[in-house]
Amino acid sequence: MARVSQAQAQENRRRVVETASRLFREQGTHVSVADLMKAAGMTHGGFYKQFASKEALIDEATAHAFGELAQHHRDGLDQYAGQRDAAQRALIDTYLSTEHRDSAADGCPAAALATDMARDGGESEARRVYTQGVGDFADWLDTKDHDGITRLCTMLGALVLSRATKGSALSEEILTTAREALTATN
Q1: pTM score, whole prediction
Q2: What is the predicted pLDDT for the residue at 7?
């Protein structure tokens, strides 16, 4: 069997991390290594060549997901030429949309991973990254009223509840009501 080049090994690792990031947001961190590797188009045996443990992958995939979120915030500010209020409003509109509700795999890691992080009673790197990411997200949402945490809690709560009630009129009402409440003064 031919050895994999260092460049190919790095590409394989990147693919596994990206796949894990999506699957963990969509299904939770309980996804099996075998299913994860299959989704990445790789064999189960290759996992331990790349990662010391599943926990190490959870750490890296969580960091990747929050890195994507931070990049989205930077892109939003760039798109609105530094107009923070306009960028925040656009984010709120997108965040509290049916498209975001229906796309957990590509969505917000704070909402998608909250239950998994709550169950992680330890001091894992994933939990540290999660905590930092939630704090950064709240800071990004902050206004002159110092309400970033309140705004984030409203958004996360609305998204989680709308996903849990998907297929009902209540799901749409949750998104609409939260979006209107958060953008009424912005």
Answers
A1: 0.89
A2: 87
